[in-house]
Amino acid sequence: MEDKMNKKSIYPNWFLIVPFLLYIIFFLIPALLGVVYSFTDWNVRSRGNISFIGLKNYIEIFKSNKNYASGILNTLKFTVISNVVKLIPALFLAILIQRGVKGHRIYQTIFYLPAVLPFLVIGLIFKSIFNYNNGLLNTLLSYMGLPAQKWLSDLSMVWKSIYGVDAWRGIGYCMTIFLAGLNGIPHSYYEAAEIDGAGFWRSFWHITLPMLTGAITINLVFGITYGLKVFDIVYVLTNGGPGHATEVMTTYSYQLYANGWYGLASALNSILFVITTIIGVFVVQHMSRQEVQQ
Amino acid sequence: MKSSQAVNSRKNNVCTPFDFLQEDSLMRFEKMRMRRLLCTSVCIAAIILTGCRKKNNETSISSGFNGESLSILVSTDWMANRYDATIERFEKMTGATVDLQTIPADQYGDLLQSKLTSGTCTDIFWIQSNPFAIKSVIVDPENYCLDFSGASWEKIIPPARLTSCTYDGKLYGLQIWHNSPEYVMLYNKTLFASLGIKTTPKTYAELLKDCGIISRAGITPWFMPGADGWRHQLPFFQIGGVYEEAQPGLYDGLNSNTRKFGGNKKMLEVLANFKELSDKGYFGKDWIGTDSTNMANEFADHKIAMTMENSSYIKQIKDETNTTDQFGLFLIPLGDNDTYPTNPAGPTMFGYKGTKHPELVKAFFDFVTTTQSLQEILDNSPKYTNLDVLDDKIQQKWLPEEKEFMDKIDRSKMATPVLQTGTKYTNDYWMNFGADMVAYCLNKMTANQVLENMDINRAASAALAHDSAWN
User: What is the ipTM of this complex?
Assistant: First the structure.
C-alpha cells in the first residue's frame, strides 16, 4: 500500500536533498555549534584559543550577580501572559468578524495592520504615546481628571505597558489565523445546534473550540516560541529597565555578546533552546492528540 | 649687475678735491646696496626654498597614489561632516579615493571587533580611546595597528591625550578632539536670576537648597534624561577628582586591584546624594522614563533650570530656540565636588596593520595634521569651539561662557581624569552601572551593591585580559 502511495507521489524523494542540506548547513549545524560553544570559554580575547570548561558557564548563569534566573522567569511569565492577552481577544474578534459584523473587512485590515509594522517603529510610536509629560495617554488621563502614569518607569506598570503594546501588535495576526480556522467550520453545525436550542456559549464550547484545535495549536506554538524568544518589543520599549525589571533571557544574551562573553551567551541561548524545544514539542503533541480524539 | 655698472662709470669720471669723500660715500652706498641685494636674495631664496619644501611635501603626498582607495571605518558623529572638506582636498591632491564607512554607534564596536579578528578591517579605523582603550578595545595593537612612532604629527598631540594614542611606548593613534568643558552643570542664568538665585551652588547642600527654590516655582531643577540610558551615570563618574582627593591613591589602587569601588565612602555619599535628588523629584517627575529629545526647548520654555551638558550645548539651545536667555556653567556639586572633569579620551584614528596601502594611510595622517587641515576641521565643526592640539596657528573659537567658567577653576583641580577613563575596565560597564543606579533609585538594590557589581564586572574583564593585578 505504502509503495503504491510512494509511486503515485508527484515529486521524487531526492528533491528533498537540497532543502535538507540547506537546513542542515544554515540552521542545524549553527544551532548545534552554539550548544558546543556553551561548554567553552570563548570570548572576545580568545583569538582561536578556545578551551572546554564543562558546565562552568551554566553554573555561572545561576550563581552570577547578574540575576539571569530572574531573566528566565521574566521570559516564562511573558510567554504565558502575552499569549493569554493576545489569544482570547483575538478569538472573539475573529468570531465577531466571521459573523459578518458591519464593516468587518475594514476591521480585519485595521486589526492586522500593526503586525506589519517594524518593532523599531512601534517602539518609537509607543515611547511617544507613553511619555509622562506630553504623551497621548497621559493627556487623555488628564482630560478625564485622572492622575498621569509612569508607563515605562513605574515597576508596577511597566510589564502591563509591554503586554499592552505586544497585544496591540499581535492580536490582528492571531485573529487572522483564527478566522481561517472559523471559515473551515461548516455553517450547518451551528444551524443544527441552534435548532436543538443551543445558545452562543454552548455552540462556542461544543462546536467552535473543538473545531478550532488546529488554529489554536498554530497560534499557541507561534505564540510560545515568540514569547520565549522575545527581544525586540522589550528592547525598544525599556531595554530591560527600569533598572533590571524587564530583563529577559535575550536581553541578557545580547548584553553578554556585546561585552564579548560568547561562551556564556551561548549557554544562555542553549537554555532558551532547550526550554523552547520541550514546551514546543509538548504543546504540539498534546494538541495533536486532542485533534485525533475529536 | 646694476651695482658693477655704477662703479665703472665712477672710474671714468674727472677727479675733484672731494673725490675721496665721494668715493667713500659711494663705497658705503655700494655696500648698502650689496647688503640689500644680499638680504633680498636670501629672502627670495628662503621663500623659494619654503615653497619648494611645501611643494616637495605635497609632491610626496601626491605621488604614486592615483587610483588607490583608502577605506575608513568610523562610528556616527566621530567624523561627521567636519572632515569632508579635508578629505576632498586629500582626494584632489593624491588622486586616491576615500571610502568612508560610517556605522551606527550601537553596532560599531561589534563590527570593528569582527573585522579586526577576521582580518578584513579597513585601512583606517577609529575607536573611542582612553589611556587603557588601546589594549582593552583593540586587544592586540601590535598585530592590528600601524606603528607611527616618530611621525611628525606626534608633536601636535597634548601629553594628556598622547596616553590615549600610545601603547607600550609605540605611537598608534591620532586623536584630534576638542577640550571644551564636557558634561558639567549647564544652567539658565536668566532663570536663576529671576528666582533670586545669585550664585551657583558649590556644595551639595547649596545645590539642594537651590533645587528646592526652583522646584517650588514649578520648574524641574535638574533635568535628568534617564531614558537615554547613558546620561544619568555622568554625575557619578565625571567627579573622579573628588574620590581621589577623599582617598589619595585611589586611582592607582583601582588599577592595581588593591582598592575597590565597594565600600568607598565618598562614592556611597555621591550615590546617596543622587538618590535624594531623585526621591525629592528634583530630576523631574518621571526622569527614568524621559529622554533628552526635547531638552533645548524645555530650557528655552523655562521648564527646566539645569542639566549636565557640554559647553557647546549653549550655542545649540540658542540656535534651536532663538532664546535670549543667558546660560552658564558650574562644576557638579555632588559629594561637594570642586574638581574639573578632565577627560583625555576621545575618538581616535588608527592605521590597520594589514592594509595594502600603508604609505597612503601615513600620507592621510600627515595631511589631516597640517595647520590648514586642522583649521578646516575646526571650522567645519559647528558643535566645537576649539581643537585640543599643540598648534598656535589655529584660530580657536572659545565661547565667552567657556572662558568665564574655565578662568574660575584652579589648575590643581584639573589634574585627575574622570573616573571612567582614569581607571581600567570601568568604562566597559557604563550601561550596566546605569541600570544598577536606576535599580538603586527604585529601591531594588543598595548603593553598595551597585558599587560591588562594578568590582565584579571589572574583575571579569581583568580575567579576560589576563591582567596580572587580578590574578
Answer: 0.82
